[in-house]
Amino acid sequence: MSSGEAPPTPPVNPAPSRPRGIPPHREWESFENHNWGVFNAPWVGENPTIEERRAYMGFYLNWMVEGSAESERRARMKAEEAATIKFAQEGKTEVKTTIFEWAVDRIYWDIWFEDYSSIAGQPPYPWRRPEEDPNEPCSDTFARILGQRRNREQERQRQQQQQRQQQRQRQQDQCVRRRRAGSFEEPQSSQRRRLEAPAREDVVFLSAMNQILSDSFGLRCVNDQDWNMNLLRYLIPHFVDRQSRQRLYSLLEEGPVMAWYCLRSIFELGYRNSIPNSGICLCTDHMHPRHFVCVWDVNGQRTLVFKTPDT
């Protein structure tokens, strides 16, 4: 697992022919220089129990890439969250325990090797998806995380509704004050009316589009003064594109908090291949990004914030 330092130069791990019955992952050499030879712990077979599989994974993954107990805990939580999102996106409200835990371990495996996979590849996950047993109980972990996500979404919607109500109340109070002061209808030219009407319509339209995009694509966004028409025109086609949307979602779920990124770099490269807070990126807007994006912690919930610099 990553410890904040650049990983050492990984060994070359070709895929030679192997005797029948030996899983491919056991032919890989360790990424740790002090682990020589090949992994020699007993193979647990193609259909182990959850406990047998995880005990084997613990030995194997730490032999390939050493990690701390804290890194294991973080990877496990991240894998459980990702597996829950995957099944929820498939419309599942219940998942059998064996299926859910297999999916968690599959994602956990990829997370463990994420610092090496783009450089030298990674050993293949050795277990196929198990058959579903209709008599098996459903996963409590899936139900718990799904419930937490729904509660957070309901709280987000409640807060947004409360903010809209407060905004309407402030507008009503301002109207009352102007009416009492005798200036409810200030004299103004027809030209001024024509200029201000589209501006008011833009505010309503932007607020509505923020809500629609957030609800439709599951991307929690802050609606502030930097949410403007140029940004909206830029976001819509990228929200529609599945790969761009997934890269933005990865930033929301996994990226660092309070680190500004070039938005185009996120869409084109993903946050792992983008440079935060530097003013320099690798996208086609190199050194002149038009829009920025950042993850904020809003009342304990990770939320996207967009910004368009003054030009």
UniProtKB/TrEMBL annotation:
The protein's name: Uncharacterized protein
Regions of compositional bias (Low complexity) in chain numbering: 159-174
Top-level taxon: Eukaryota
Organism expressing this protein natively: Fusarium floridanum
Residue stretches of biased makeup (Pro residues): 7-17
Disordered, as annotated region: 1-26, 150-195
